[in-house]
């Protein structure tokens, strides 16, 4: 198996020995079951604490976005993606979008 593409938050590789390929972006939209929202909101309004189902949902989304970034970069011939950032937005009630982006380099 070839070396996997590395996702890095650093802005430049040490020694600046990389060739910039370009921007890579991916997004992933995910929604929760409405019953799960009711339970989470009830917990949020009453006792507080971590909403574990949402944490698991975001962890899954982060993993999916990371895999998609690697696949997109690999298709461009990249060895790494630098300056990786993630962002999230609410696209509809009970649905969120996770966005990942960075600069593909070799």
Output the keywords.
single chain; 106 residues; alpha+beta; Translation Initiation Factor IF3; 4-stranded mixed beta sheet; 2 helices; elongated
Give a structural overview.
The longest helix is centred in the middle third of the chain and has 24 residues. The model has no long low-confidence stretch (mean pLDDT 83). The chain has a single domain, classed as Hypothetical protein apc22750. Chain B (Translation Initiation Factor IF3). The protein is an alpha+beta fold and 106 residues long. The protein is built from two helices and four strands, in the order ββααββ. A hairpin with a 2-residue loop joins β3 and β4. The relative contact order is 0.32.
Summarize the helices and strands and which ones pair or pack.
Blueprint: E1 6-7, E2 20-31, H1 34-46, H2 52-75, E3 80-92, E4 95-105
Parallel strand pairs: 1-3
Antiparallel strand pairs: 2-4, 3-4
Give the CATH level 1 class: Alpha Beta
Beta content comes to 35-45%
Oligomer: single chain
Largest sheet report? 4 strands, mixed
- The outline comes out as elongated
Strand order, largest beta sheet: 1-3-4-2
Mean pLDDT: 83
Radius of gyration: 17 Å
Distance between the termini: 18 Å
Structural class category: alpha+beta
Roughly how much helix do the residues carry, as a percent range? 25-40%
Give the count of helical stretches. 2
* CATH domain topology: Translation Initiation Factor IF3
**What is the β-strand count?**
4
């Amino acid at each position: 198996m070839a070396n996997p593409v590395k996702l890095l938050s650093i802005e430049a590789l040490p020694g600046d020995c990389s060739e910039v390929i370009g921007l890579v972006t991916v997004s992933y939209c995910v929604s929760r079951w409405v019953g799960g929202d009711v339970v989470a909101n009830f917990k949020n309004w009453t006792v507080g604490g971590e909403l574990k189902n949402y944490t698991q949902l975001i962890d899954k989304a982060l993993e999916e976005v990371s895999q998609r970034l690697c696949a997109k970069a690999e298709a461009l011939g990249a060895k790494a993606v630098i300056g990786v950032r993630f962002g999230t937005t609410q696209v509809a009630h009970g649905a969120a979008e996770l966005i990942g982006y960075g600069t593909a380099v070799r």
